[in-house]
């Protein structure tokens, strides 16, 4: 593991955190398991790299974690945030220690897909989390199995929480052309640079739901063309209205004037010629339509009626028209959640916060010294 931050077991972070283990590493930095010497509690400390871009992302995430303090982290199924501190020039975020992400959870079980009895509570908890986030005007924009943590793998039913708000945005601040997240879980309108809203998160949840059911990624791909090709082969093209408004549509589609279908997906050869990128189909399971998900699921996954209800929910989340896609509140009322699931219909909607608490982008670009970063972080 490339540990350029020089984080090792036994290292003291800040004033009172001793590193016990390295939990993971990403482009942002390193997540460690630490003991708080003051409280004796075990906590997860996310140590961000001190490069300007990573520092800006850390400041962005801190501003959103502060915004989420108006929510009950346990009831809303989001990670608890316990503040931040500095270790040398790196910002360290103090987070709730959780067990493992959904990818590892599936891998530990041999990844054949989960039974409906396990999928149901996971999706209900994630839809509940999105309902609360969207109710305060926050869109996650990077929902994927790696950003869904199992609280304790020995618990049944399994409890999950959403983590990593480094790419989150206020709905009111989303701009056409914003590109954030992981393309395999990205709604087609974002890849096309067409207008999008909070239903982007619902698309991501639908892709996760299909992956939990099949034990395999629904729409894998190195490039956006790969992902769009899989989507179109399985579900058909996005509506002409979405394609017409996409600023990047012409990268992937030919405009066919005076024809019944005004847009045609470029062939792999055409896309490679125009972009210089080599398209590749990396699916383990190729579906001809979303109905095939039920056929892929293990026989022991659950009764056929439950599988059909799950399929109906997935279809509503993966509607190609974002205007027709189900929203979190509506998803929680879906018949799939009726059997034995305690609905959280009494969730209170919190008013959208009018004034942002984070630093402004222009201010972030001007930050150079650690002392400036400390002052700016304290102002949030």
From TrEMBL:
Q: Name one GO molecular function term.
A: protein tyrosine kinase activity
PROSITE patterns linked to this entry: PROTEIN_KINASE_DOM, PROTEIN_KINASE_ST
Here the segments flagged for biased composition (Basic and acidic residues) are: 369-380
What is a single cellular component term in the Gene Ontology annotation?
A: nucleus
The UniProt keyword set, sorted, is:
ATP-binding, Kinase, Nucleotide-binding, Serine/threonine-protein kinase, Transferase
Under Gene3D superfamilies, the record lists: Phosphorylase Kinase, domain 1, Transferase(Phosphotransferase) domain 1
Protein kinase domain location: 17-337
Key word Cell cycle present: no
Q: Which superkingdom, per the lineage?
A: Eukaryota
* Region called Disordered, residue ranges: 361-380
Claim: ATP-binding is one of the keywords in the record: yes
> One Pfam family name from the record?
Pkinase
> Which SMART domains does the record cross-reference, listed alphabetically?
S_TKc (SM00220)
* Listed name of the protein: Homeodomain-interacting protein kinase 1-like
Q: Organism, per UniProt?
A: Stegastes partitus (bicolor damselfish)
């Amino acid at each position: 593991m490339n540990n350029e931050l020089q984080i090792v077991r036994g290292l003291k972070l800040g004033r009172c955190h001793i590193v016990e283990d390295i939990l993971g590493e990403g482009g942002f930095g390193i997540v460690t398991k630490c003991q708080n010497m003051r409280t004796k509690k075990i906590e997860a400390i996310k140590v961000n790299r001190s490069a300007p871009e990573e520092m800006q992302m850390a400041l962005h995430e801190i501003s959103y974690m502060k915004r989420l303090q108006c929510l009950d982290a346990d009831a809303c199924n989001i990670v608890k945030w316990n503040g931040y501190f500095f270790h040398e020039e790196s910002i360290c975020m103090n987070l709730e220690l959780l067990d493992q992400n959904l990818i590892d959870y599936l891998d530990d079980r041999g990844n054949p897909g989960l039974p409906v009895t396990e999928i149901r509570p996971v999706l209900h908890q994630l839809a509940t989390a999105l309902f609360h986030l969207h109710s305060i005007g926050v869109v996650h924009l990077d929902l994927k199995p790696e950003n869904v943590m199992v609280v304790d793998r020995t618990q049944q039913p399994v409890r999950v929480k959403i983590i990593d708000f480094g790419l989150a945005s206020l709905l009111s601040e989303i701009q056409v052309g914003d590109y954030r997240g992981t393309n395999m879980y990205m709604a087609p309108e974002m890849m096309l640079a067409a207008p999008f809203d909070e239903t982007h998160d619902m698309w991501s949840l639908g892709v996760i739901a299909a992956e939990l059911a099949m034990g395999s990624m629904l729409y894998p791909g190195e490039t956006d063309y790969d992902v769009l090709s899989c989507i179109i082969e399985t579900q058909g093209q996005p509506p002409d209205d979405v394609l017409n408004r996409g600023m990047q549509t012409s990268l992937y589609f030919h405009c066919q004037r005076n024809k019944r279908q005004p847009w045609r997906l470029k062939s792999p050869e055409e896309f490679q010629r125009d972009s210089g990128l080599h398209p590749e189909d990396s699916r383990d399971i190729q579906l001809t339509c979303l109905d095939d998900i039920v056929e892929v699921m293990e026989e022991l996954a659950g009764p056929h009626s439950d599988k059909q209800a799950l399929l109906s929910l997935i279809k509503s989340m993966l509607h190609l028209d974002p205007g027709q896609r189900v929203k979190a509140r509506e998803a929680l009322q879906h018949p799939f959640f009726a059997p034995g699931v305690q609905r959280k219909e009494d969730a209170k909607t919190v008013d959208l916060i009018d004034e942002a608490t984070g630093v402004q982008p222009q201010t972030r670009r001007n930050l150079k010294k650690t002392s400036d970063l400390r002052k700016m972080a304290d102002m949030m």
